[in-house]
Amino acid sequence: MSNPFFNFTVKANIVFIAIFGVHLGVLRLLDLPLFENKIVLSYVVNLVLIIVIFGVLYLLRKKYKSQLGFLFLAGSVLKFAVFFVVFYPLYKLDGTISKLEFASFFVPYAFGLILESVSLSKWLNKLE
């Protein structure tokens, strides 16, 4: 039997590299700056957070089986907290959050959330 945490980590890295490439391609196509708005930091932080949250859920899967959904939600709260602590102050330095700044955070956040939700759903269904 394969390790769901290892499989998720590999899948998450591949997905994030692909999405990052597409994101940069779109920015280049639109002749916009590629590496501004903390885009690299955003992808790295979001990737690390989804791997850590999935890992914690994997470690707690037996002891807190019936609470895993709530723990997943707590992980989402953690991601929002990281946004408001790390990214929000940087993006608000000029007084507004531009569409590019928003996209730099939201694109990896959204794809991470989708990947995490689908992977956890499949994994949890196998536990039952």
Automatic annotation (TrEMBL):
Q: Where does the source fall among the domains of life? A: Bacteria
Q: Which UniProt keywords apply?
A: Membrane, Transmembrane, Transmembrane helix
Protein name stated in the entry: Uncharacterized protein
Q: Which residues cross the membrane?
A: 12-30, 42-61, 68-90, 102-124
